[in-house]
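Anyone up for a design puzzle?
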């Protein structure tokens, strides 16, 4: 990273640690700057020191960097101020053909079987399987792509110093070492929460060109927020035939609302990605 960009990088990291991007955008629109800190949240913050310490774990990438994912501009005022990344050199290659494969944490056995088939096909076709490391569908998607010998992209709802969930630490560390990348909106040390899960789901939707929603429980899972955000961003949402289990009622609703495309098998999904 060029040292001349440190001042902007440190300022963005400081703001991102304390304010959502739309709030910063609103302040800037009214001619408020970094020094206008009505909340007092930045008063004791030391941007350069905090950034330097955090970058011992991962890199903070900002929009002026060559590796910044251009697709994030589709988020408008919610576009992140920056991203914390492991494996940042791989971001342009990975995000160019990123496809989310996501779904329930407490997934049915049929959903996990489908996940392996779809993730393997997506990876072998040259797309980047992108998911969240969560239990169930997402971790299965990462592992299926790895077994196919392909790098993956992970979006975490916490700081990159620890895995989420904790017992996926080995999976987390294996992704950047095998040519993939791990991304978060949140600096090292940030724990997962409902708010971070929703924000990360929206980030996942923006980073990819399409979402394969294997199985999702309506109104409960982060995967549904990813799918709905993707639909709002005009990313295709591809849905296998619902299993009939209540845990697929989110898929049923999206199909009924014509916000998703039915893909009977991986071959049909790949046809939609062409």
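Challenge accepted. My sequence:
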């Amino acid at each position: 990273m060029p040292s001349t960009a440190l001042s902007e990088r440190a300022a963005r990291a400081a703001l991102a640690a304390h304010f959502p991007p739309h709030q910063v955008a609103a302040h800037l629109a009214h001619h408020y700057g970094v020094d206008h800190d009505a909340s007092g949240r930045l008063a004791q913050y030391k941007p350069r020191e905090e950034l330097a310490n955090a970058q011992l774990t991962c890199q903070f990438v900002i929009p002026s960097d060559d590796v910044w994912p251009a697709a994030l501009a589709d988020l408008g005022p919610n576009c992140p101020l920056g991203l914390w990344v492991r494996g940042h050199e791989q971001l342009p290659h990975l995000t160019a053909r990123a496809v989310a494969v996501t779904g329930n944490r407490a997934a049915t056995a049929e959903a996990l079987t489908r996940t392996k088939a779809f993730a393997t096909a997506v990876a072998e076709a040259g797309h980047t399987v992108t998911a969240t490391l969560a239990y169930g569908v997402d971790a299965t998607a990462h592992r299926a792509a790895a077994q196919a010998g392909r790098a993956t992209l992970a979006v975490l709802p916490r700081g990159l110093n620890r895995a989420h969930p904790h017992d996926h630490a080995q999976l987390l560390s294996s992704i950047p070492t095998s040519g993939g990348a791990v991304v978060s909106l949140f600096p090292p040390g940030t724990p997962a929460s409902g708010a971070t899960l929703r924000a990360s789901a929206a980030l996942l939707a923006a980073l990819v060109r399409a979402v394969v929603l294997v199985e999702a429980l309506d109104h409960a899972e982060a995967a549904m927020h990813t799918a709905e955000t993707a639909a709002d961003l005009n990313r295709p949402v591809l849905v296998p035939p619902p299993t009939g289990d209540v845990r697929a009622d989110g898929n049923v609703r999206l199909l009924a609302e014509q916000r998703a495309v039915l893909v009977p098998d991986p071959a049909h999904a790949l046809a939609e990605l062409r």
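A detail worth pointing out: The first strand starts at residue 59 and ends at 61.
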